[in-house]
């Protein structure tokens, strides 16, 4: 008798336990849904854009060296946006509802490669607060930079506005539920295979046929003890 397990044997095991596998999927989807709708808090992202220019060169048209200088300023400004001075000013405008570290963790800054545009993004569980914070960051940054660096080369291209029906960016409900179902199914597939392969008990005629490779001609029924009535 061969101890090798073929793909056909594995498929038969899964077919035999198909209802159990469906139960695993339902359980995984249920757990993922509970985690999304009960445990986690949805996060909303609001953003705006800032354009950095070389003010004295705008009248004559920007040349390559001037554009490169503006791009270097973008990298500097990206750091300044999350500086303590700017965020403390933002916090003052927000009635000191946050600490510096709390605000810094909510804010992310990036720019399109080789461009003079800075994107400011804020992630918060309240879309209204996210929009308020990101707009205050842009305003405070523009005002403070103009005073400190004595330049006027920052223009706010767009301000964050909350849509009528804001959609959270995290968690991705459909993706989380799908992953929950897939993980549960994989666990079920592995568990059923392990159970069948490690279980040496003979349960029915099919097990005898598979184990001994001989046909079954008859089955002895339960014999009742006459002393037990």
Throw out a few tags for this protein.
229 residues; alpha+beta; Alpha-Beta Plaits; four-stranded antiparallel beta sheet; 4 strands; elongated
Q: How much helix, percentage-wise, in residues?
A: 55-70%
Fourth-tier CATH superfamily name of the largest domain: EIF_2_alpha
Unreliable sequence segments: none
Number of strands: 4
Largest sheet: spatial strand order: 2-3-1-4
Task: Determine the number of helices (DSSP H or I, runs of at least 4 residues).
Answer: 9
Radius of gyration: 33 Å
Alpha-carbon distance between the two ends: 43 Å
Largest sheet: 4 strands, antiparallel
Q: What's the SSE pattern?
A: HHEHHHHEEHEHH
CATH class group of the largest domain: Alpha Beta
Shape: elongated
Strand content: 5-15%
Query: Whole-number average pLDDT?
Result: 81
The CATH topology of the largest domain comes to: Alpha-Beta Plaits
């Amino acid at each position: 008798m061969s101890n090798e397990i073929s793909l056909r044997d594995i498929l038969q095991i899964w077919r035999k336990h198909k209802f159990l596998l469906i139960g695993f999927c339902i359980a995984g989807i249920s757990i993922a849904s509970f985690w999304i709708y009960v445990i986690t808090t949805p996060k909303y992202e609001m953003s705006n854009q800032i354009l950095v220019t070389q003010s004295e060169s705008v009248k004559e048209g920007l040349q390559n060296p001037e554009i490169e200088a503006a791009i270097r300023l973008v990298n500097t400004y990206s750091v300044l946006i999350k500086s303590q001075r700017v965020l403390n000013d933002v916090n003052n405008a927000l009635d000191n509802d946050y600490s510096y570290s709390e605000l810094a963790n909510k804010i992310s800054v990036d720019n399109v490669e080789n461009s003079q545009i800075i994107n400011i993004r804020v992630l918060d569980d309240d879309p209204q607060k996210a929009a308020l914070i990101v707009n205050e960051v842009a305003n405070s940054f523009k005002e403070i930079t103009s005073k400190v660096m004595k330049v006027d080369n920052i223009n706010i291209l767009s301000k964050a506005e909350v849509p009528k029906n804001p959609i959270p960016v995290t968690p991705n409900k459909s993706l989380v539920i799908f992953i929950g179902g897939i993980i549960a199914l994989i666990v079920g597939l592995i568990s059923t295979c392990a159970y069948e392969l490690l279980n040496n008990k003979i349960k029915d005629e099919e097990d005898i046929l598979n184990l001994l490779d001989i046909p079954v001609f008859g089955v002895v029924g339960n014999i009742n003890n006459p002393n037990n009535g």
